[in-house]
Design brief:
single chain; 4-stranded antiparallel beta sheet; 3-stranded antiparallel beta sheet; about 15% helix; globular
Length: about 130
């Protein structure tokens, strides 16, 4: 967790765009956001360096974006062998909400203590089963 440069942002409006998120998270330091990937009502914001990540975490957590107060946390890295770190437990038998997000190096833990990971795998009934 000491090297994480990715934020997990939840409680987004479905209408919120990646461009809006890039703009909002770049306000403190323009050009600090490397990339943004939004999936339904949550997103991952990648930064070039950790210092900017932590600054954005503090300034953006609880901020209202497009009419919705957002919750911002550090994304939880997945260990090298593909298992979740910190003893996090999977929800839905290891399944995650479907999306076209190709970075399988991060997962997040929801407020309800569910861990959802992003990765590749078979898609069934709107869920992606993680490999």
């Amino acid at each position: 967790m000491q090297r994480v440069r990715v934020l997990y942002v939840r409680n987004l409006m479905l209408s919120t765009t990646e461009e809006t998120l890039r703009s909002e998270f770049s306000r403190m330091k323009p050009g600090s956001v490397e990339r943004v990937k939004k999936l339904t009502d949550y997103a991952f914001i990648h930064f070039y360096n950790r210092e900017d990540t932590l600054t954005a975490l503090e300034s953006m957590n609880g901020k209202v974006i497009d009419g919705s107060p957002v919750e911002v946390t550090l994304a939880k890295p997945v260990s090298k062998d593909g298992t979740k770190r910190s003893g996090l437990r999977n929800s839905y038998g290891g399944a995650a909400a479907a999306g076209n997000y190709s970075d399988s190096n991060f997962s997040f833990q929801s407020r309800d203590d569910m861990t959802i990971g992003l990765g590749t795998g078979a898609v069934s009934d709107g869920l992606t089963v993680l490999n």
